[in-house]
Write a structure and sequence with these properties.
15 helices, mainly alpha
């Protein structure tokens, strides 16, 4: 079903690839339609591969998942280097390399799936259930994509291309860091929530996981926001220096966006995914209005703060909808205090410590403050988990010892003389 829907959408997009190229790339890129065709084909294989990828996560075959993913990464890197450097194919080489790697990745996943489950077959009843569950999520995903990408088009209207380039670099770095943080977590999280639901204290467990997730994500993003100051000037021209502080605001927005993956849990468990649609539409509306109001005033900074407002609106409207379905006792006082503390730490280090510290010192301070926050926010729960693990290990050893005694006792009685 996913392949059919994706085929229809991709066919329409390929048919209109020239229009897409003219609108987004302009006349400066004569091969824009061909580039879009390659990108759309890559998207088709990516979407189909995501379904097969989800099967590995559902079966918890982490070794197979990591092996295939790592193989795809190495193949993609090697092919891209050969096409870009060896054959000097430029953008076309990059897109062709991505397409080839995606096709190979999806083919391997398909082989694993067919070998373990057999050939594909059609079940209309399951299809109807999937449609009711997934259709609202498609709308939410499209709205989220628009939230992520729309600001660049508004920037092209009101600011120079140089400022668009600076903002694009900042957004790309922020998005990459956020993806590296969220992708491993969400890959297993959307499977694990159904196991947690079966626990007697499921809601309390979800609340604790939210606290760990928010703390961990906040610490990692704080580290990224600080380390770009000494690292980025070494990697980019001086013209991109203004992107350094923009990255911090963009990461703040992505932090707010990441919370939605925790807030949406009740809607996924109860299959009321349609309640995600109002939040996504409202977030998109806020994004458009905020960009139109703020970009003419403060340029790229306006786009960055528009993202923060957008993701706050999106995530907390998701929370409001989910709370009516299944209230989860989140520790809001701890969350607000930790978030405020992380933000104040960035301000203090950025404007009081960094101006009087060299590159090595800035890196050391960045690592130090993140380690300190990790101890403050995660030590207590970490010690509890460690103690629980030790008790569980002792209980397992005790049970094994008792079972061993029960097995050996009949053997002694059988060997005794009658």
């Amino acid at each position: 079903m996913v392949a059919v829907v994706c085929t229809i959408l991709c066919s329409v997009m390929i048919a209109g690839s020239q229009i897409l190229a003219d609108v987004t790339l302009g006349d400066e890129v004569p091969d824009g339609a061909w580039f879009y065709t390659l990108a759309i084909l890559t998207m088709w294989f990516t979407v189909v591969g995501m379904i097969l990828d989800a099967y590995l996560r559902a079966m918890k075959w982490s070794g197979t998942f990591v092996t295939i993913s790592l193989g795809r990464l190495l193949f993609n890197i090697g092919l891209n280097v050969w096409l870009l450097v060896g054959l000097d194919m430029g953008v076309e080489g990059l897109l062709l390399g991505n397409l080839a790697a995606t096709v190979l990745h999806t083919t391997v996943l398909m082989a694993v799936f067919v070998r373990s489950r057999g050939r594909y077959c059609t079940d209309r009843e399951i299809g109807r259930h999937m449609y009711r569950f997934a259709a609202p999520l498609v709308i939410t995903a499209l709205a989220s994509m628009a939230m992520h990408e729309a600001d660049r088009y508004f920037l092209r209207i009101w600011v120079s291309m140089e400022e668009v380039g600076v903002y694009s670099l900042a957004h790309k770095i922020g998005f990459a860091v956020n993806t590296l943080c969220l992708l491993p977590v969400t890959s297993i999280w959307h499977v694990t929530i159904y196991d947690i639901e079966k626990l007697p204290n499921a809601r309390d467990t979800f609340a604790r996981v939210f606290g760990w997730f928010a703390s961990g994500l906040g610490i990692v993003l704080l580290g990224a926001a600080l380390t770009v100051h000494p690292v980025l000037p070494l990697l980019t021209p001086e013209a991109y220096g203004d992107s350094i502080d923009l990255i911090s605001v963009i990461l703040l927005g992505f932090f707010a966006f990441g919370l939605s993956f925790m807030f949406e849990v009740p809607l996924l468990l109860t299959k009321k995914t349609k309640l995600t649609v109002p939040g996504s539409i409202a977030g998109l509306v806020v994004n458009v209005l905020a960009n139109m109001l703020l970009i003419p005033l403060i340029g790229g900074w306006g786009a960055a703060w528009a993202g923060v407002l957008t993701y706050l609106t999106f995530s907390f409207l998701i929370y409001a909808a989910a709370r009516k379905v299944m209230p989860i006792p989140y520790q809001w006082t701890q969350f607000i205090g930790a978030t405020a503390g992380l933000c104040l730490t960035w301000l203090a280090v950025r404007y009081w410590v960094f101006p009087v510290t060299g590159v090595v010192g800035q890196l050391a301070v960045s690592v130090g403050v993140c380690a300190l926050w990790a101890v403050v926010l995660l030590r207590k729960d970490g010690m509890k988990l460690l103690a629980q693990r030790r008790r569980s290990t002792r209980a397992e050893c005790s049970m094994l010892s008792e079972n061993s005694g029960l097995v050996q006792e009949p053997q002694r009685s059988e060997s005794a003389p009658v």
